Amino acid sequence: MEVTKIENVTRIYKIGEVETKALGGVSLIIENGEFAALVGPSGSGKTTLLQMIGCLDQPTSGSVWVNGHDVTRLNRNQRADMRKGHIGFIFQFFALIPTLTAYENIEMPLLLNGHTPAERRARVEELLEAVDLKARANNRPDQMSGGQQQRVAIARALATKPALILADEPTANLDTVNGEQVMEIMTRLNKETGVTFVFATHDPRVIKYARRTITLRDGLIV
């Protein structure tokens, strides 16, 4: 079963009279349970494609389907609901709320989705154990290493049991050891939960973990 389908998507950015084609007619299917990497040099279009899949941007032409929904037909609020209910995000700079603990950062998506206190507690404790951070539950981001912060971000992305996890350069700000740990955790969670992971990267440490590699150059899949 496909989680996302991209059909002949183009994305053109226009500043004044200057047009830049970020995607030049991309078609792609990502199946349920994949662990796939979008790879290519800077400017190849991989981050733009990730943003299309994540409902963070809209194509100039073409269509994007996520979990059976044509998201190009949705308005801004509907796309936000898609992100909230179906997609988890892992960012290069972690994007944790600095005043909240690890527990509270993971709990936040569950609060936004209306889960009960008991449901939230059970899910957060389950995820803290999954990323080996139970001892750090009450630590704020500034009390954790970069690797630990990214593991909190992974747990937060998984909190609502989304169909799809999108990661943009998930190891870019980590040293080799922490980068390896993060990728091993993501690989294990993909196998254990069946959730689909798609990540954009040019880092060989990340690419070697991918079970499918999708290479982009100049806005096209090559």
Question: What is shown here, in short?
Answer:
The protein has 222 residues and is α/β, with parallel strands linked by helices. The protein has helices spanning 46-53, 76-86, 102-112, 117-130, 146-158, 176-193, 204-207, and strands spanning 2-15, 18-31, 35-39, 61-66, 69-70, 87-90, 164-168, 196-201, 212-217, 220-221.
Can you give a write-up of this model?
By secondary structure, the protein is of the alpha/beta class. The protein has one domain: 3-Layer(aba) Sandwich (Rossmann fold). It is 36% helix and 29% strand. It contains seven helices and ten strands. The strands form two sheets. Strands 6-7-8-3-9-10 form a six-stranded mixed β-sheet. It has a four-stranded antiparallel β-sheet with strand order 2-1-4-5. Strand 4 and strand 5 form a beta hairpin. Helix 3 runs parallel beside helix 5, helix 4 packs across helix 5 and helix 5 packs parallel to helix 6. The longest helix is centred in the last third of the chain and has 18 residues.
What secondary-structure arrangement, pairings included, does this model have?
Blueprint: E1 2-15, E2 18-31, E3 35-39, H1 46-53, E4 61-66, E5 69-70, H2 76-86, E6 87-90, H3 102-112, H4 117-130, H5 146-158, E7 164-168, H6 176-193, E8 196-201, H7 204-207, E9 212-217, E10 220-221
Parallel strand pairs: 3-8, 3-9, 6-7, 7-8
Antiparallel strand pairs: 1-2, 1-4, 4-5, 9-10
Q: Main beta sheet: strand number and arrangement? A: 6 strands, mixed
Order of helices and strands: EEEHEEHEHHHEHEHEE
Tell me the overall shape: globular
DSSP strand content: 25-35%
Number of strands: 10
CATH architect. name = 3-Layer(aba) Sandwich
Q: What would you call the structural class?
A: alpha/beta
Approximate helicity band: 25-40%
CATH topology title: Rossmann fold
Radius of gyration: 17 Å
* Side-by-side strand order of the widest sheet: 6-7-8-3-9-10
Q: If helices are DSSP runs of H or I spanning 4 or more residues, what is the number of helices?
A: 7
